[in-house]
Design brief:
alpha+beta, DNA polymerase, domain 1, 3 domains, three-stranded antiparallel β-sheet, 13 helices, 10 strands, metal ion binding, nucleus, DNA_pol-X_BS
């Protein structure tokens, strides 16, 4: 009681309050689009501590959620459930099939924990790129096809009711149609492009998070390594690159100071350039 008398607070009580606040933030951040800062603000300003509190506050007009946050709240129970590997395989196969109907032979790979061999996944990350080229170069027609691939693919996947909700789009849809611009010559069509949304295989399946990324040929190896992960592996590779005077990202390997970059056509080439022994995807969790 000495703390309470002398300072007006009690250390043990403050610890309990802090832990309660952390628990509330953890529950609210289960909603896609709500991060720790937003969750903390909701808790402090509106006393929102649970998903039930959040639904009540939204219904009463006390809190206005963005469109993606509303989707996240509506589907929060389903989206936090991990999916079995077989379901991730089926989702990846669906995206690959539709993508190759638009650009025959295009590169398609399911990355993330799936590629690292995990038996369950929180979401599915599909990486798309140009089809193989004998010259390693793309014609203007090839570039245009890749630039329009994602908008056309999203339109097909929505038409088939495979995609149910859009969370983030690579660019703003046409207001008149509510769909996606497909003009590959527009600045909006430049690569890389990223889509985040929600899909569902059928009535007997849950809604699942799906990311689709389209990268140009010169970046595909770097994107493949980056989106395979793990986060720990990526941080380690970036730190190693920095010590060697490079900057490594999903888009390439460039000199930190001055001009200069390295062209790599495969993950193995990236490892070789950095003086690293090759690691299979399932070896990249540590």
């Amino acid at each position: 009681l000495t703390d309470l008398i002398e300072t007006g607070s009690m250390m043990e009580l403050e610890v309990v309050r802090e832990r309660a606040g952390q628990t509330a933030c953890e529950e609210l951040t289960q909603v896609w689009g709500i991060g720790p800062v937003t969750a903390w603000s909701m808790q402090q300003k509106h006393g929102v501590k649970t998903l039930g509190d959040l639904r009540s506050a939204v219904a009463a007009g006390k809190i206005n959620l963005s469109s993606c946050q509303r989707i996240g709240l509506r589907l929060v129970r389903e989206l936090k459930e991990r999916m079995p590997r077989s379901e991730a395989t089926a989702i990846g196969a669906m995206v690959t099939k539709e993508a190759r109907s638009l650009v025959p032979g295009c590169f398609a790979m399911v990355c993330g924990s799936y590629r690292r061999g995990k038996q369950s996944s929180g979401d599915v990350d599909v990486l798309l790129g140009p089809p193989p080229s004998a010259t390693g170069q793309d014609s203007e027609a090839d570039e245009a096809a890749m630039q329009s691939l994602l908008p056309n693919l999203l339109q097909q996947l929505h038409t088939s009711n495979f995609l149910t909700d859009d969370l983030t789009l690579p660019y703003t849809p046409f207001k008149s149609s509510g769909r996606y611009p497909s003009d590959g010559n527009s600045a909006e069509g430049s690569l890389p492009q990223t889509y985040m949304g929600v899909c569902k295989l059928g009535a007997d399946h849950l809604h699942r998070r799906l990311d689709i990324k389209v990268y140009p040929r010169e970046m595909i190896a770097f994107a493949q390594m980056y989106f395979t992960g793990s986060d720990y592996f990526n941080r380690s590779m970036r730190c190693l690159a920095r010590r060697q005077g490079w900057s490594l990202s999903d888009k390439g390997l460039k000199k930190r100071f001055g001009a200069g970059s390295v062209t790599c056509h495969s993950e193995k080439e990236i490892f070789e350039v950095m003086g690293m022994d090759w690691k299979e995807p399932h070896e990249r969790d540590s």
